[in-house]
Every structure is written in C-alpha cells, then in structure tokens.
Amino acid sequence: MSLNKDMGDKHEKHVAEKLQMRQTRGSGNQWRDPMDSRHNRLDTEWAYANDGKSTLKKSIGVSLDMWNKAVQQAGGERPLLTLRFYKDERLSGVHADLALTDLDDFAEQREAAVRWEQTRQFLEKLVRARPVSARATTMGALAQILVIVDEIQDFINAETPAPATAPDKDTQTKAQLWDQVKPTLEAIVDKQPRCMPVLVDQLRRVLDQEAGTR
Predict the structure, then answer these.
(1) Which residues have a Cβ under 8 Å from the Cβ of 124 and sit 6 or more positions away?
(2) What DSSP state is assigned to residue 27?
(3) Which pLDDT score is estimated for 208?
(4) Phi, psi of 69 (to 5 degrees)
(5) Are 78 and 61 contacting, i.e. CB atoms less than 8 angstroms apart?
(6) How many of the other CB atoms lie within 10 Å of CB of 80?
(7) How far is it, in rounded angstroms, from Cα 186 to Cα 193?
(8) Which of 23, 69, 150, 210 has the fewest CB atoms within 10 Å around its CB?
C-alpha cells in the first residue's frame, strides 16, 4: 500500500469519525456515491459532503475547478473540502487539520449557534423563575429540553428571530419572562427545523398546553 493511500485513508477515517459522516465506498470513486464521506440531508439541515486532501508538504493547492467539482458531487448536501498536513512519513502527527466550506454556509451555521446560545440562556432563566403564568408541567417540559441541550446545538436556523434581551432583575417579573420567551418558542415550532424534530414536538405540546389553559 502506497504512502499516499495510507495518508488519504487515515485522513478520511478521521474526518468521518469527527463529523459523524458515512464513509463512501472506494473513497468516492463510485459514480453513484461520490466524495469521501457525507451526511444525509434528510437527517439534518447541516449535511455536508466531504472531499479530503492530505500532504507531507507545506501547501495544498485548491483550485476553482476543484471546488466546482465538490459542489457538483455534493448533490443535495453542502460541499466541504478538508485539508490535512502530516508531520512525517510515519503519519504519527499532524501540523493542521483544516476545513474549507462556502462562506454563506459557515455564516448560516454560526448564526444558528449564536441564536441557540442566546435562547438557551433565556430558557434556563425561564425554568429557574417558574412563572405562575406558565403551568408547572410546562416548566418541566422546558427543563427536559435543557437536559438534551448538547444534542440540539444547531436546531435554530438563521431565519428564527433572536430572543429579546431580558430586562434587569429589578424590573422583570416572572410573567413578563414567559411572555418574552413564548414568541421565540412559537417561531421555532413554526419553522420546524428538521435537525431536531423531537424538540419541535416537545415545544408544540408546551405551547398547545398553554393555549388550553387560557
């Protein structure tokens, strides 16, 4: 087995495990299943198809043709190029592992992470406050959502409105807190992000339950 193949195989395996991707047969040399590894767009909004390049040298050439090929072969997934710089021929170390993706995709994913970061803090505050305007079972459902927070990092996409900034403790009432967070939950349910259907179902039940008490 050649050194180049060893480098490629080790890199492909690492990327697939790191990003929880399915490795394609023959490193993507099958016309029906190109690219080295990929997610499934039916499972998540953040589905990528990856083509990896690795080297022992100090540079890897990335051309427009290479990128256009990745875009075409990605199909319905988002294109991704991963670049690995090995330290030596034993492949015992790596100088750098890099990922190259479309700027719009990166911006969308970053915005999703930021929005969830904001919303998580708001939900935690709401659960701690347990406003009387929301039933105890509602708070329990929201608390349950927070238990699985690490699994739902990307559930809010860029089109979901960011939660309002909470007022100071002195002026904020528990009822106001619920009134502020409710529109955010409604927006999530309305958008129905595919990457976390269980969360959407939970939030829908919470909102339906609240509506039934009015």
Answers:
(1) 146
(2) G
(3) 77
(4) -65, -40
(5) no
(6) 25
(7) 12
(8) 150
- Say which residue, 39 or 119, is predicted with more confidence: 39
pLDDT band at 72 (very low <50, low <70, confident <90, very high): very high
CB burial of residue 118 (10 Å; 0-12, 13-18, 19+): middle
Question: Tens digits of per-residue pLDDT, 75-127?
Answer: 889 999 999 999 999 998 999 999 999 999 999 888 877 777 777 776 666 66
Which residue(s) pair with 5 in the sheet? none
Could you tell me if residue 20 is left (phi over 0), alpha (psi between -120 and 50 degrees) or otherwise beta?
left
> HSE-up of 165 (CA within 13 Å, CB side)?
2
> Which residue has tokens 């997934």?
77
Give yes or no for a contact between 81 and 62, defined as CB atoms under 8 angstroms apart. Answer: yes
Take residue 7 and report the two structure tokens written for it: 């480098």
Q: Helices H, strands E: what count in the chain?
A: 6, 7
pTM over the 0.85 mark: no
Collect contacts of 90-93 with beta carbons under 8 A, ≥24 apart.
91/6, 91/7, 91/10
Instruction: Say what the pLDDT of residue 93 is.
Output: 93
Contact 75, 35 (CB under 8 A): no
Contact present, 94 and 85 (Cβ < 8 Å): yes
